[in-house]
Amino acid sequence: MINFISKVKDNLKELLALIKRPEMAILPAHLAFFLVLSIVPLFLIIILTAASYFGQGEVVVNFIENTFPADVQEVIMATITRSRFDINTTLFVLISIFVASGGLYSVIVTANALYDNYQNNPVIRRIKAIFLTIILLIAFYFILIVMAFGNSIMAIVVNYIDNQSFLDYLNMIFIIVRWPFAFLYLLIVINLIYTIAPDNNIKIKSTFWGALFTTICWIIVTVIYSFWVDNFASYDLIYGSLSTIIVMMMWIYLLAYFLVLGLAINATIYFKKITRGDKNVKQSN
After folding, report:
1. Helix 182-196 and helix 243-275, axial crossing angle in degrees, nearest 10
2. Which of 43, 158, 242, 262 is the most buried (most CB within 10 A)?
3. Is residue 1 part of a domain?
4. What is the Cα–Cα distance from 49 to 245, expressed in whole angstroms?
5. Which domain range does residue 271 map to?
6. Which residue in 36, 41, 143 sits closest to 94, CA to CA?
7. pTM given for the model
């Protein structure tokens, strides 16, 4: 029991030391900025594509009206009305992804600093950053649509289905996808990011604990954000129509923060194993 308490105290001290690291003060905000820079326009593209597919039908319009404040609704509806998915839109998406990769590029540089790898190949790191950006954006849209806005979307879908047995079946699938599948999916994606980001030869099993920590934190933060969206998003008492955007930016920042913290946790575990002489841990520079 005493040894267990001692280990817990040591782990808490290490966690506090990680939180005080310089990169924890800078990188999360940097990553969140690039994510916001790309997520907002790409989300508009997704809405635009859905509107084109459904012919700007009631499903898309109701989702926008039930999810976003009035000012944001006007911007999205104007985009849907005036735009179409064409070559310009495709170019815009590619540029957005490239710009967003600046955040993951910083994560890669930080990962190599944490793992004491100072080799620098900007071209390979940029290609890796773009690849990881696409993976992270897919994961983000998954938790945004399924976990954060899932209840709002299901509430709209219910209005268009009269078959109660089918609704029950659909709701069961939604619960499975939203929780067990979401947990497993995020764990795999985050673990993959932690494995690929450093230039060292990092084994995927050595990044498990940091990925598990980040996945749990992401789900907790998203559940809180989803609760706010479902219950308080329409009550803009302080910031008016900006409240939804401000809360979303706080949510994105916390996701970025825990992503960076999980990376630092993995680096700490990595060097602990090296110090103990773990033969399964190899550092390749």
Report:
1. 60
2. 262
3. no
4. 22
5. 22-275
6. 41
7. 0.78
